[in-house]
Fold this sequence. Notes:
The protein is α+β, with helices and mostly antiparallel strands. Helix content is 18%, strand content 44%. α7 (455-462) packs across α8 (465-475). The N and C termini lie far apart (80 Å).
Amino acid sequence: LALDVWRLASGGPEADLHIVAPPGRQARLEINSALQGVALDLPQQFAKDAETPAQLNVEIPLGDASPSMMLSLEDQLWLHLRLGSDGLRAVGLGFARPQLADTRQSLVIGGELERLHWNPWMDFVSEYVHTGLTDFGLGLLLQVRNLKLGELEVLGRKLENVELSAQQLDKAWQLGFSTDWVRGSADFPSGLAEASLDLEYLDLEGLPENLLHPLKAVAEDTEVAEAGEDSFEIPEMKVAVQELQKGGRPLGNLSFTAHLDGGNYRLENINGNLRGLILGGGTEFVVDWLQEGDSGGTHLRGPVGFRNFGEVMSNFGYEQFVETGNGRFDVEASWPGGLMDFQLAKATGRVGVAVEEGRFLKSSAAAEGTLRMVGLLNLAEFVRHLSLDTSSLFKSGISFDSITGELLLQEGMVEVPLIDVLGRSSRFQFAGSVDVEQALVRGELLATLPLASNLPWVAALIGGLPAAAGVYVVSKVFTEQVDRFSSAVYSISGPWADPEVKFERIFDNTMTHQKALQTSVETSDNEVADKDAAPPAPD
């Protein structure tokens, strides 16, 4: 075999040759050597200097129409060569067990290996196998068949308990893989123009800490850069996750297109359903993960819809405190770090709220603390604290026709300029703020119950049914003024686990906190406008 691949060995060993001819079985030639005095230029644990012995066994069946050869080194590295009339036809490389060569012209790799560092092995294949086979006039396609690895190190990442399969086609690569936390396949066409990644499942809790770090940042590591891994670039890739999990619990499904540009990731065309939260829904949903320049961090922009927010809360393990129709949050948020580094206390941005009809339910006292943070507008709980006796009015909760408003995220503070809960016979408006780090809430709740359908509430306010009837008559004539008569303002303050709801004033439909927030926002806008309008400073 005049293959250049044999130059990986240097030296002249002693060897024993035997012809074995068992009765009724095929005869074979056996060659055995301790390789004393021979150095092997193999990767990692298989490398050998001339002084260290290593047992080499070679078996060559005799009399086959298609000759073959099986070599084993310490019973840990196996090489099967299939020969033809014109020489070498196919190669099988096995770790810890034999891997038979295919009948086609191919290099097949299989078996089990405790640790594999990708780059040294690719350098070995490029230096000896591809070069040697190409010089011999063979074009072998690479295949990997159920290769089990205790640890795989590639592109600066270390992955544990990996099983790999791969097939090199004429114009593409097909890759299959599985670990404890992910299983799927990938297609890489020639030129890496339109790669695709299809995951059967992905468990977020199993993700290695640095797996999602941009490759350019990883390549700044000296060892990785010296290995040439900084030249690797991810192409545009279409990603689909059929079952997204967290700690073994289903989250839903997700799909997107990923780009890498100079160390920055962009995820666009995002669509999915995460426990009832609908991402995208036909509208652009984009995530940018920037690693270069002064604007490093993650930026998210897009709609998050739902068909019943109460079911969403149940799906995420919270007690259901609301039932709704369709709704959506229009989210625009930024935070330092990567995709998995989100913290409300460090986020900035805006969340628009639009919800169709539904009702706030009476929740259990055990869930109140969590629910007040998850849902700042759990009105059934706030109303329960009001100084008026409204129990007869809201036995089954508080119904509404719509909820609109917005939340402003300001690095540790959640400002609520106004959330408007409009019902057929009631209206609740909330303005306030939440200190996320201190777990404190401060704001005002304006409760408006039109007199025409809420005489018991009016009677409680002004001390008797006759007076209420009189106001009812007036309400038919002076609608706007009656709104003031039927409104009361309550302050909400203290720990969000148990805020104090205190009656402030009556006959008023304005909120001090909302005015303060509006003034603050208008002042900021004016300052920006003044800066934009100011003439440039003289040189």
